[in-house]
Fold this sequence. Notes:
133 residues; mainly alpha; Substrate Binding Domain Of Dnak, Chain:A, Domain 2
Amino acid sequence: MSYARQMLDSYPGARNVDAGLLAATIDALTDCFQACIADVDADLGEQDGPNLVKCIRLCLDCADICSATIGITSRQTERDPNVTRLLLEACTAACKACGDECEQHAPYHAHCRVCLEACRRCEQACGQLLAAM
């Protein structure tokens, strides 16, 4: 069981969304954040680094948005669903853009393939949580 799920299960108040779905989204956000940061580092070490500038920028944007979304979705007390919804929408868009860019480099760079998979999983998880809100 993930730490996100353990924390949600220990929350003393009522939740407006399924704990399993919320925990899966937080886990996907965390994985995507980490994959994007690691992909940036790997991109910077590649010989064709200048060709990866767009990938680096999108990974950094995606990581920042995932980080903010992790914080907002992890807090349950007095949360504003409108703010949560907007961040999930932004995260879905960022994950799609980053994943699309990583997909172009995935045949040549394994780290871009891993980031692509994390972005697609996060995009799907955020979309599912949005649909449940």
